Amino acid sequence: MATRLLLISDTHIPGRARTLPDDVRRAADAADLVVHAGDWVAASVVDDLAQHGEVLGVWGNNDGPDLRARLPEVARRTIEGVRFAVVHETGDAKRREARMDAAYPDADVLVFGHSHIPWDTTTPRGLRLLNPGSPTDRRRQPVHTMMTAVVDDGRVDVRLIEVARDRPSA
Asked: Any signal peptide, and if so, which residues (predicted)?
């Protein structure tokens, strides 16, 4: 049976947005599991996402002691036979693939954040590296982003999705 994932990172709430965008909440409602790769900033974001379903997350470099007490630095879960690991930071893009192959030999997919740059590559060993970008803080990227994934029978089908900016209510 297929498992639907929402992959997000670097929400930086309330610094970059007051709340999660509606697109993220709708995607969370449609997912079986929400994976957040850190830099939540406010613990209320964990609680908000948990109202939409199960959350697997890690803390990031901008997360304080409250989030570090609730979340691990690295999370792991096997989903439909695929071994996932989640971490916030993987370091500089240069030689990332070799470093992550060495650091996560027991993972098939590594979800990470920190750079706010969407990323989908496969290392020489076959480790898939996924960074969903940020749904609230695009930095130098043209749009805000998130990823969805469907894990089924050992396969992982990923889509990068543009996140619409919510308009303030009148």
From this structure: none
pLDDT tens digits, residue range 75-107?
Answer: 999 999 999 999 999 999 999 999 999 999 999
pLDDT in tens, 12-51: 999 889 999 999 999 999 999 999 999 999 999 999 999 9
Q: Residue 170: inside a domain, yes or no?
A: no
User: What token pair was written down for 140?
Assistant: 């130098």
Residue 10 in any domain: the answer is yes
Count of structural domains within the chain: 1
- Enter the tokens of residue 22: 């509606």
Distance, in Å, from the CA atom of 145 to the CA atom of 116, rounded to the nearest integer, reads: 9
Give the N- to C-terminal CA distance of the chain in Å, as an integer: 43
Type of residue found at 49: L
Kind of pairing between the strands at 33-36 and 55-57: parallel
Q: Is the dihedral of CA 103, 109, 112, 115 positive or negative?
A: positive
Amino acid identity for residue 121 in this structure = T
Find the CATH number of the domain harbouring 18: 3.60.21.10
Name the residue range of residue 41's domain.
3-163
Please tell me the distance from the alpha carbon of residue 56 to that of residue 127, in angstroms, as a whole number.
19
